[in-house]
Amino acid sequence: MLHSGSRGIGNAIGTYFIDLAQKEMQETLETLPSRDLAYFMEVRNTLMIT
C-alpha cells in the first residue's frame, strides 16, 4: 500500500475516484441522501483508466 497524502497527487487520485462513484450513483440510484455518501456498488477493474 502506498500513502500518497491528501495534497497534490493524493488529492487528485481521491477526487478522481470520488467523482467516479458519484457519477455511478447518479446513474443507478434515483436518490441519495448526500453526494458525499457515494460508493461503488460492485468491484470492477476501475484502475484500467483510458
From TrEMBL:
Pfam families: RtcB. One of its GO terms (molecular function) is GTP binding. It catalyses: a 3'-end 3'-phospho-ribonucleotide-RNA + a 5'-end dephospho-ribonucleoside-RNA + GTP = a ribonucleotidyl-ribonucleotide-RNA + GMP + diphosphate. Its cofactor is Mn(2+). Binds 2 manganese ions per subunit. One of its GO terms (biological process) is RNA processing. Its EC number is 6.5.1.8. It is an enzyme of class 6 (ligase). Coiled coil: none annotated. Mn(2+) binds at H3. This is 3'-phosphate/5'-hydroxy nucleic acid ligase. It comes from Escherichia coli. The lineage of its organism: Bacteria, Pseudomonadati, Pseudomonadota, Gammaproteobacteria, Enterobacterales.
